[in-house]
Design a protein that fits this description.
The chain is mainly α. The chain contains 4 helices and no strands.
Length: 106
């Protein structure tokens, strides 16, 4: 699919696009971690935890709103906690929050 536009993209539009993709990918990875914890599929949890941490590094905290930067700081602590239902619920909550932020950028 080729995205075309009559006018050239502005710097702000490019930055939004560059933030949207990692945020939405982070939300998907967190959702998979949450489902893996519920299913007790710890190999899946480990893999998507690594993916989520890589996605987190792709997001520049300076280019997002302060509350999103605070959420990004908190996510590592939650991902490193023991596998439990509480962890799954917390990660699912963060997944939904990041998904909402990404949709707002669109």
């Amino acid at each position: 699919m080729i995205i075309t536009k009559k006018d050239p993209y502005t710097l702000e539009e490019i930055e939004k696009k560059n933030t949207y993709i990692p945020l939405s990918s982070l939300a998907m990875d967190l959702d998979r971690v949450s489902k893996g914890v519920y299913r007790k599929s710890y190999k899946m949890v480990e893999r998507f935890t690594q993916e989520a941490l890589m996605r987190k590094k792709e997001i520049d905290p300076e280019r997002v709103k302060p509350y999103v930067a605070r959420l990004l700081d908190k996510i590592e602590k939650v991902l490193e906690s023991d596998n439990s239902e509480q962890k799954a619920e917390d990660i699912l909550m963060y997944s939904i929050l990041f998904q909402n932020v990404a949709l707002k950028l669109r």
